[in-house]
């Protein structure tokens, strides 16, 4: 069975009616449990749970300390190509956006890797636009091989592949895979993905499962909050993570909660997830998924990220550049995939983590 079977079962589910019917007693009952059901999770995502946010946060903090200790993992992205064959209306890399696109040579990939490694970062995400003709498997395999010289963990955030192709990159040294469904709502998905392979909802939805079968030790998923209805997106993200946990017990499952940020030539968010709602979702995820890692990127403002350290997150990006070759550039450009909000250096983020009583972790895994 795949997650496609699970999500199809909710095709006619009345989310609005269910959320409106949640009572205060439903929320209290969910908070009293050690293991939450899907119904409990829905209760904690509802508006009725908002008055219980302090209780949710306290329990989330305890669970995080129990399973992860006072540690905070650090990572950063490396963009090696911004060519893209998709027209995604929310992304700065979309194929209709006119700018001077770039793909790094392997020598430039090594320069980026060396400069980022000099900051202390040892876990990275290698990113490209979705253009297989421009960044074929051979190029990605060679890039991963270069990255492995500098980093303990190389995660991929690229176009979805078949299981055999993922296996090639895993053998080359990539140990983790990130695939955002963007939106779990089929109709919204169709509206925001106007052309390109990314229009294939099912192919993308099942990519994490292909990656797990291909041998990746870690799979990270999530929705882009700003496209579909926010509570539904949170619910599907959560049950997707639990499905992967159950069916692939030897794979470490992670969850990201990116909020849409304005990108050049892209639409504005359709649905706004405000800060209190963001905190509610993080704590609900932690209560529903006690052992799942939760990552927060530099999309979020520094003062907000500082507060989230105590509320259930386990990984922070630091010292990030979101344009191709960004670490070697003297100045920022307008060709980044999205605008970042936390521009602090790695050292500054490390200092913040320590000031909050946590231990920054640069490396917690290595392939032997």
Task: Please write the CATH class name.
Answer: Alpha Beta
Average pLDDT rating: 94
Shape call: globular
List the secondary-structure elements in sequence, H or E: HHHHHEEHEHEHEHEHHEHEHEHEHE
Sheet with the most strands: spatial strand order: 1-3-4-5-7-8-9-10
- What is the total number of structural domains? 1
Low-confidence stretches: none
Structural class, by secondary structure, is alpha/beta
Which range does the strand content fall in? 5-15%
- Estimated radius of gyration: 20 Å
**Cα distance, first to last residue?**
33 Å
Described by strand count, sense and barrel closure, the largest sheet is: 8 strands, parallel, barrel
CATH fold descriptor:
TIM Barrel
Tally of strands: 11
Bin the helical content.
25-40%
**What is the name of the CATH architecture?**
Alpha-Beta Barrel
Count of discrete alpha- or pi-helical segments spanning 4 or more residues: 15
CATH superfamily: Aldolase class I
Sum this structure up briefly.
The chain is α/β, with parallel strands linked by helices.
What does this structure look like?
With 368 residues, the protein is of the alpha/beta class. The protein has one domain: TIM Barrel (Alpha-Beta Barrel). It has 15 helices and eleven strands. The strands form two sheets. Strands 1-3-4-5-7-8-9-10 form an eight-stranded parallel β-barrel, surrounded by four helices. A two-stranded antiparallel ribbon has the order 2-6. Helix 7 links the parallel strand 3 and strand 4. The longest helix is centred in the middle third of the chain and has 18 residues. It is globular, with a radius of gyration of 20 Å. 48% of the residues are buried. The model has no long low-confidence stretch (mean pLDDT 94).
């Amino acid at each position: 069975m795949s997650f496609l079977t699970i999500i199809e079962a909710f095709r006619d589910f009345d989310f609005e009616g269910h959320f409106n019917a949640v009572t205060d007693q439903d929320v209290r009952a969910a908070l009293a449990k050690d293991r939450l059901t899907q119904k409990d999770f829905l209760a904690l995502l509802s508006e009725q749970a908002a008055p219980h946010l302090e209780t949710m946060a306290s329990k989330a903090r305890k669970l995080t300390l129990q399973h992860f200790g006072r540690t905070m993992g650090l990572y950063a992205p490396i963009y090696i190509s911004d060519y893209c064959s998709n027209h995604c209306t929310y992304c700065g890399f979309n194929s209709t956006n006119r700018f001077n696109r770039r793909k790094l040579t392997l020598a430039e990939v090594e320069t980026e890797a060396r400069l980022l490694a000099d900051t202390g970062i040892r876990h990275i995400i290698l990113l490209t636009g979705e253009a297989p003709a421009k960044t074929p498997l051979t190029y990605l395999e060679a890039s991963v091989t270069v990255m492995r010289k500098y980093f303990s963990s190389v995660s991929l955030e690229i176009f979805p592949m078949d299981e055999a192709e993922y296996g090639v990159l895993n053998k080359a040294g990539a140990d983790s895979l990130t695939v955002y469904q963007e939106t779990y709502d089929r109709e919204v998905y169709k509206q925001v993905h106007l052309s390109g392979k990314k229009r294939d909802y099912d192919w993308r939805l099942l990519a994490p499962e292909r990656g797990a079968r291909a041998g990746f030790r870690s799979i990270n998923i999530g929705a882009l909050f700003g496209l579909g209805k926010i509570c539904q997106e949170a619910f599907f993200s959560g049950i997707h993570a639990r499905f992967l946990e159950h069916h692939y017990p030897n794979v470490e499952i992670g969850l990201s909660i990116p909020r849409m940020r304005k990108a050049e030539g892209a639409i504005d968010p359709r649905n706004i997830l405000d800060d209190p709602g963001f905190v509610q979702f993080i704590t609900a995820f932690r209560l529903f998924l006690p052992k799942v890692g939760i990552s927060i990127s530099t999309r979020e403002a520094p003062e907000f990220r500082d507060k989230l350290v105590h509320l259930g997150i386990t990984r922070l990006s630091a010292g990030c550049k979101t344009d191709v070759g960004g670490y070697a550039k003297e100045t920022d450009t307008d060709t980044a995939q999205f605008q970042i909000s936390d521009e602090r250096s790695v050292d500054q983020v490390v200092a913040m983590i320590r000031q909050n009583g946590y231990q920054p972790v640069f490396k917690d895994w290595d392939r032997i």
